[in-house]
């Protein structure tokens, strides 16, 4: 079925959504309009808060729809008010924590999107799946999504393999919060006079957060602790770029963790593509140089390829294939739930 | 001044309080009555919640006072209702996070205890200071307090040195939450097929918390995340005791961290006493054996001594010395605030 599809990418630091026309054949849908919301969707005792997500998504979708260029007849239908309005055929929401904290979303969103947008098909994907679809489309391979968190996802198109993505207390090893946390720990070691400290990292921590004694009070009461930790990762990269040996070691260890995680999910076929995605790559050389070395050593059979698109593009691609009954990526109750 | 003193020990997993008669000379006050409250005092945007602490402390203190044996005249005074009731001369509250999150307590508690209990002297101490006073009294040396968190405190009786105690995201290296977290990470590595995993730890994690996929949802929404992490530390010790090499390595590394932290605060004098305190010692041999090795290697000039008492005994000791104008431990705006 042709018309418009809605993609949503919900992450630790905010939410993005986009509308695209359904594509043709194996083409990639192109975002026609996008919108953003700052800050993460709330997480409560029952997981990711579906009502909060809808509060963020529905008004922004309505605004985007109202600004769309005149759609062809096939993409319109009569609305309840008698006006012919654009038709949303399918929605894909990719969300951080979907696999483990997504029960509320799986219960609420398919019905809500059908009711509010007329969407007939809804996909609820782990952010790792939308990152995968954005980066490699529907080819088998492995995708590393490294931002505040860290997860690697692989598929042979029969099933999914996931490694890490357990959040900042249980894993996300080598991700932005992990790097920033290690950098702040090294700063406080220097402050205390403990072994393993870095005075350069301490100076940067004081410049960014103020006196060390105020740091716990600035971090622990916040709901977005992983984002606060990750905000220090660029300072670690900066100190590493200037040769600070503790910062260099933090990034070398992060690179080893990321490659280890990729190795756990990559299909064994020679030449399997591995794409690196996510904001963490913005740390540049101090991370990327050791990461290239670690990937070459731990995944000699794979080849690193550029990511074709981002997780929002991946959400649009999944929504598009779903709209046209052409999805090749495998469904999965936790990673890619089709409602 | 003689009479009764109140000691309070507020930690990550609950609160304890005790009343004691003022002592004589350098004697240690002896708790005459104690009470407990489960669960940590709340922390809000302005730090530790003073009103919540008072809600827990005041009714329990009133109950203890009402059950005290008939006090001698010197420890009684006329109450507002004309009845002669026991006199609380001094209070010492030792609280986790006092140094960094204690501004609200320092503002509210001295006035509140004067008003509600008639206390003329109030000491607000970091839990590290009450742990010190309980373990070594007023001798110079170093005390390691290792429970859910991890902090080392040293004094030469002129000033305090503190190392670590930064909480589970910034430090507390080698403490209960640190060990439990490392154990759960190793469990999830095994689940994912990543290097560095332990199938024994995975089996224990599944036995304690259920399927790995449910773990993030059980941990991240909770306010007592450090306690949840620390609850897994005994499982790590158990696996280490059974020879699991990953668990053994976690405890060896914890021991190295604890000794490193102690070394940062211990006075340099030959024979300086170092006392180990806190619930973490209950992990037994799998932690204590490597800890003895690490202390001998990193602190050859010090001697490890048993702790004389716990942090609640330390709070009573500080309150007693304060009541009698005989405190030798040095005051400090953050660690030992005298109101």
UniProtKB/TrEMBL annotation, chains A, B:
<feature type="domain" description="ATPase BadF/BadG/BcrA/BcrD type">
    <location>
        <begin position="88"/>
        <end position="319"/>
    </location>
</feature>
<dbReference type="Pfam" id="PF01869">
    <property type="entry name" value="BcrAD_BadFG"/>
</dbReference>
<protein>
    <submittedName>
        <fullName>BadF/BadG/BcrA/BcrD ATPase family protein</fullName>
    </submittedName>
</protein>
<dbReference type="InterPro" id="IPR002731">
    <property type="entry name" value="ATPase_BadF"/>
</dbReference>
<dbReference type="InterPro" id="IPR052519">
    <property type="entry name" value="Euk-type_GlcNAc_Kinase"/>
</dbReference>
<dbReference type="InterPro" id="IPR043129">
    <property type="entry name" value="ATPase_NBD"/>
</dbReference>
